[in-house]
## 1
Amino acid sequence: MSAAAGPPAGGLPPLVDHHCHGVLRYEPDAAEFAGLLTEADRPPAPGTSFFDTQTGFAVRRWCPPLLGLPAHCPPEDYLARRRELGPDATRRRLLSATGIGVYLLDTGLPGDLTGPAETAAAGGGTGREVVRLEALAERLAAGHRAGGAADAEGFTGALERAVHAAARTAVAFKSVAAYRHGLALDPRPPGPDAVRTAARDWLAAGAPRLADPVLLRHLIWLAVATGRPLQLHTGFGDPDLRLDHADPALLTDLLRATADTGTDLVLLHCYPYHRQAAYLAAVFPHVYADVGLTLTHTGTRAAAVLAEFLELAPFGKLLFSTDAYGLPELYVVGSALFRTALAELLDGWTASGAWSAADARRVGAMLAADNARRVYGLAGDVPEEDGPGAGGPGAAGRER
């Protein structure tokens, strides 16, 4: 396929992007655009650019042809064309070229971002909401800040009701405990007295950001009790987390404790601990792993990293996502790198005789869409309106 042809179709069904975020409704300036190409939360070193990364090069490879420019054009030419088209037209052109049919969108991040329905409409697909547990709790806490036992009791009751209410419309829940405390959590559900004490202390302290390990565990167990899939951030992200505290292997005791609940757990991102995540998906029937964010940031090495995921992860346990945030370009890059990496691997394994062509097609469809449709119960999925959390308040940093 020529560079001007856009992302490859690859013979796959419409993709299910099982974890993603809204995109900016406004036109970012050059510095903000470049900042969204990285997990860094500060400007680049003097004399350098975030365009000079695997993600930056991938954007310049795949996106300019979709806006009428040659692939690999200079960043300033691309950004000028973007400004000429405006954010709405840019969003439609880019998202409609991704081959994504379903967007499961985490609405817990702050900012002027598109919600599930608006994002999906631009891409010609359907959208569903993933509810971020910590953001839900932080919104509720704003009404229970007076402190004291009565307020803590009211807050914990309201929190339980809110999680169960969200489960009626949300396709899944998500936790960013990896950012707030790390994944080495006590696997047991906390008792009512411990939850009330932790809630009282948090409310009285006035801290807007939920980082108490007891309340984080409580949220996880509330979500597990609903039966909706629970997504867990693992592996790399912005510098607000400690990478060594985000190793999914630290979740082993929690995975054991939730094994008989009937609720599936999905390990997001995983890199550089993707082999640990693949192992956990191999040994726990209710655990799944995700390639989102990883492939976007590894660029031309995406096939090598995907192959490492597939060394041990059962083929029915690995899910596609982009984890795109802020820029529609990240949807294009995430889907294009997934398709090209998967095609490279499957074509090679088929040519070598290790796999049959029929099995390669079947596994490709599983990773692209079928696994996510099964986990999230998406048969007959239809568009839904943007949920109340779309673009709502979130925690500091992206916490993706």
Note: Confidence is low (pLDDT under 50) at residues 1-6, 382-396.
## 2
Amino acid sequence: MDWQSEGPELWAFLEPLHRGDILSGTVAAIERFGVFVVLDDGPGHPTLPGVGFIGIPELSWRRIDVPTDVVRVGQRVSCEFLGSDTCNAEAGLTLKALEPDPLQAFADRTVVGQELRGTVDKVFPIGIFVDLGDGVFGLVPFREVDGRPVASPAEDFEVGEEIAVVVVEIELPTRRVFLSRPESGQYAGGVLPT
């Protein structure tokens, strides 16, 4: 369907929007792949429940099981505009951009070399993912990666087990936290700071 010719009022609404604009509306439908929002002052959509759409990764900084962990039908929301989806003629939106980023807060209060306690969340052949709380997860690799220390074999860890870890690196641009296991005061960068 050629949305520009078939839905001129829809394009007249979407075209002047800029990334970062704040839009408000009401959650119209929740699907397993995302949430449709009827935007205030926005036109109706000819085929979708709303002209705004929030994909699952844009609902929250935290890991969620289902969209209803964050929103419900009929709820009023304020979202940041990401861009227009020209295939579906909808406004791509994010809820999480308007919330504090837990990884940034973690980086602000944590230093490399700091020892923390966390819970083993997942065990993979590459390493273990550790839940550090507040929606922040870090990786303890099983083999050396870029000079990072090696953890014990996978069979030494159980999901749900609480363990001590040392922060090796926090990469905000890639949203990754690398960890190691504390061993007699040593970590990848040398002696732990006191």
Note: The chain has three helices and twelve strands.
## 3
Amino acid sequence: MTHEEAPPTHRYAALWEPPVVSSRGRPPRVTRDAVVDAAVAVADAEGLAAVSMRSVARALGVGAMTLYSHVPGRDELVDAMVDRAYADFTLPDPDLPWRTALGVYARGYWKLLRQHAWLTDVNPWRLPLAPHVFEAQEAAYRTLVDTGLTASQVVETVEIVNNAVTGAARSAAAEDADRRSQGTDYAAYWAQTSDFWEKTFDPARFPTMTRLWSEGAFDNATTPFEPAIEGLLDTLELLIAHAQREGAATIPSFESCMARYEEAVAEEMRAMKE
């Protein structure tokens, strides 16, 4: 493996074992925790794009170079911010039935993204290798691992839930931003468009929309989160019932996985190098 291909250890090492601050010399003006907390506060108030070493240093009242003794750069700072935010994730109890547990997970994720809207700007396919992120992922997979779905279906189903929650949270955040910038809420915005529906909209050109409108389908087009997540859970319940009828899959136990864990890891590492 070349140097360029080496895993970015610096991106995750401090997330698991924060560096020990030397007791020699003058005590640091700020702590690593304070740096991360300040960065999260900047992102919560102004968005992820507003987070820089300079903006965080300014929030702490120190020079930007002071921050580099705690985090090597912005990438590592954002990783730490994500992990800090995920510490606020309300996770389901391991003993809950799968549907209840997955509902708790989805609602916890929704609350997290509404509290830290900037998380929707983080690439979900490259979340940091961080303890609180892993704890959330572990809790999500645990809700479905013994329902009869295959291993791939468990991962895919959790991804469907995550995407549904993220999409709803991103839309809600965009609505919040428009309400602040335009000074009108959702209802007031659409009330201003009555002239369009009376004079421009052609029902014959859009017959399906017209049929749905006649049934009141667009009366609350923002789709409140609760009905949306319950509808998704209803669908997943059908999927799991089907899997159980057709012959439930059995995912190996933790103990059996550990029996060949080192061999499996070695195989995975060899495959990554090829």
Note: The mean pLDDT is 90.
